[in-house]
Design goal:
InterPro entries: Lipid/polyisoprenoid-bd_YceI, TTHA0802/YceI-like_sf. It comes from Nannocystis exedens. This is YceI-like domain-containing protein. The protein is mainly β. The chain contains 1 helix and 13 strands; from the N terminus they run ββββββαβββββββ. It has a single domain, classed as Lipocalin (Beta Barrel). Strands 1, 2, 3, 4, 5, 6, 7, 8, 9, 10, 11, 12 and 13 form a 13-stranded antiparallel β-sheet that branches. Strand 11 and strand 12 form a beta hairpin. The chain is globular. The chain starts with 7 loop residues before the first strand and ends with a strand. The N terminus is likely disordered.
Length: 184
């Protein structure tokens, strides 16, 4: 079963460095992904070139979509695809793993040709499945992005937040087996 536009994956980045006050924490949205479950087995395909910059995350956690100009958003997206994730050479990120009886996703993520373990709890909230996974980019050989000779940089962590319907076909309470969540 496949669903369109019912699931979301957001990626949060965090500023760091001496001049961090001049930088922004950001929220990005992954535009194309596929997550498949068969029994307890999970697999995922993610296309990082489809990341878009939603805006600046304020201290209150709200996203200010107008906090960056269209030019700044485009520049950030180019930096992500061309300098950080090298999407021309590595167009896809993959995940293989399992969902444990305790509601933990445990597996391996392949990014930039390198594999590292990933583990995170999954929560059921009403008719939604939610998970937050903290990734340490240096595990995949990604150095924190720097500007102004390192006075502004990103922390060596990003948070990936998944929000999926419990039932990809109908958004209901029970998840059929097998099932697929997808975004175009």
């Amino acid at each position: 079963m496949t669903t369109q536009d019912k699931g979301k994956i957001h990626v949060f980045t965090f500023k760091d460095g001496l001049l961090a006050r001049l930088a922004h924490d950001l929220r990005l949205t992954l535009g194309r992904f596929e997550i498949r479950r068969e029994g307890t087995a999970l697999s995922g395909r993610f296309w990082p070139a489809t990341l878009t910059v939603d805006g600046v995350v304020g201290k209150d956690g709200r996203v200010d979509a107008d906090g960056l100009s269209a030019g700044d958003k485009a520049k950030i997206q180019r930096n992500i695809t061309d300098e950080i994730l090298l999407t021309a050479q590595h167009p896809e990120v993959t995940f293989t793993g399992a969902l444990t009886p305790g509601g933990i996703v445990d597996g391996r993520l392949v990014m930039l040709g390198k594999t590292a373990p990933v583990r995170a709890p999954v929560r059921v909230e009403g008719d939604r499945l939610r998970a937050q996974i903290t990734l340490v980019p240096s595990q995949w050989g990604i150095a924190p992005y720097k500007a102004l000779a390192g006075a502004i940089k990103l922390q060596d962590r990003v948070v990936v937040a998944l929000d999926l319907p419990a039932d990809p076909a109908a958004g209901g309470e029970a998840t059929p087996d097998p099932c697929t969540w997808a975004a175009p």
